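Same chain as my last thread, 121 residues:
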Amino acid sequence: MKSTAKFIFCSLLISTMTYAADPATPATPATPATPASSAASPTEQIATLNTTIQNQLKALQAQQQQQIATLNSQLQTQLKQIQTELQTQIQTANTQTQNQMKQIQTTLQQQIAQVQGQIKH
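reply #2:
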């Protein structure tokens, strides 16, 4: 009787830990196996508990893989947005630089013309 109670307690504890791993998207808890009889051997109980643990680990891994895929997708979207914004900023800065260079060139040409005019006179 004690071993059955321990088995049920351990199964419930593992189910609780699975839920606590990520309360936002809890993994589907494995249904604790009920021993065929109250006289199930400790070896059978351990095997059943191991199967339960393995199933819960698989469910948790699948959940984590989905979360990783979602985060990767979000990061890729953010990187594309940043890249687009940086390209826009670079194009704007290039245009401003070109305009300033044209203004400087025009100013220098005017100053050269003035100096040449003063030299001739």
